[in-house]
Amino acid sequence: MSEKIIAFLKGVMQPFLTVAMIIVFVAFAMSGKFTADQVWQVCVGIIVFWFGYTAFKFGTGSSGTGDGSSPKANSPVTGGQPAVQGWGQPCESCGTESSDESDFEMDDEKPPEPIDKVDDIINGLFYDLQEDGVKSTSAAVASRVVSWLGAHQDELNEAEKKDLIAFGLDLAKKAYATTTGLDKVPAKYSEVSDYNKWWRENQKACKAPKGEARAVLMTLRDLLKRSEAL
After folding, report:
1. Do 24 and 39 touch, CB atoms closer than 8 A?
2. What is the distance between the alpha carbons of residues 126 and 144, in angstroms, rounded to a whole number?
3. How many Å apart are CA 180 and CA 16, to the nearest integer?
4. Rounded to whole angstroms, how far apart are CA atoms 175 and 184?
5. How far is C-alpha 176 from the chain's CA centre?
6. Exposed/middle/buried for residue 67 (C-beta within 10 Å: 0-12, 13-18, 19+)
7. Minimal CA–CA distance to 125: which of 81, 157, 84, 168?
8. Helices marked H in the chain — which ranges?
9. Greater model confidence, 32 or 57
């Protein structure tokens, strides 16, 4: 039984016994069968018994402190003695156990790679265009893809390289069709491997100046060659 329950019972029983003894004293005294001294002795005996019983039960019993005093009086504050058992008992392990979040430590030497490396590269290309003040057209982005592959393609595995080339190739075909106005978009490297031949065959139908047409063609040509080499 905890010290709080014990204190509560003592607090309730003491006034209750006082009122009860007054009632008993008055009732017995008015009956005329007992003298005032006899009634008083009975009341005192009950009170003494109660306090003697609680002192033994909660003071020197197996669950008490062993010295006949209140458990509350012997609750340790300092000195490293064990705390009183029951409500309010301190948790010995509290503050020593850490959660999963606090146990997790980031390895600063190996930062996590992006969820999708190719997406991260593409986002970087758009950012670079913005920083350079260049409009992010299909031709401009496709050209940056070719430049990035020329300098960093060894950093990609085959699957990543395939994804980035496919992205650039799709934009290069759109840029070719939009810029030149030609109906047929080359689908194989062999169709554009000879630039001079391509220009002779398409210069009349091409709506773009030679320089612009050559720029989009060379980007498409490079990506077609890389795609077929995979």
Report:
1. yes
2. 9
3. 106
4. 13
5. 48
6. exposed
7. 168
8. 3-31, 36-55, 100-103, 117-132, 138-152, 158-180, 195-202, 210-229
9. 32
The DSSP 8-state label assigned to residue 216 in this structure reads H
Going by C-alpha positions, the residue among 174, 221, 157 that lies closest to residue 193 is 221
Q: What is the pLDDT of residues 82-130, one digit of tens each?
A: 444 444 444 554 444 444 444 434 444 454 554 589 999 999 999 999 9
| Contacts with 34 (C-beta within 8 Å, 6 or more apart), sequence order | 28, 42
Residue 9 · residue 61 · CB < 8 Å = no
The DSSP secondary structure of 104-167, one letter per residue, reads ----TTSPPPPSSHHHHHHHHHHHHHHHHT----HHHHHHHHHHHHHHHGGGS-HHHHHHHHHH
Contact by Cβ (8 Å): 149, 227: no
pLDDT digits 0-9 by tens, 21-32: 667 666 766 666
Which residue in the block uniquely carries the two structure tokens 């002779």?
200
**Which two three-digit tokens encode residue 201?**
């065959």
Could you tell me which residues come within 8 angstroms of residue 125 by beta carbon, excluding any fewer than 6 positions away? 141, 144, 145, 148
Query: Could you tell me the residue ranges of all domains in the chain?
Result: 3-70, 117-229
Q: Where does the pLDDT of residue 79 fall: very low under 50, low under 70, confident under 90, or very high at 90 and above?
A: very low
* C-alpha Rg value of the chain to the nearest Å: 47
| CB of 195 closer than 8 Å to CB of 218 | yes
Q: Of 72, 66, 68, 67, which Cα lies nearest the Cα of 85?
A: 72
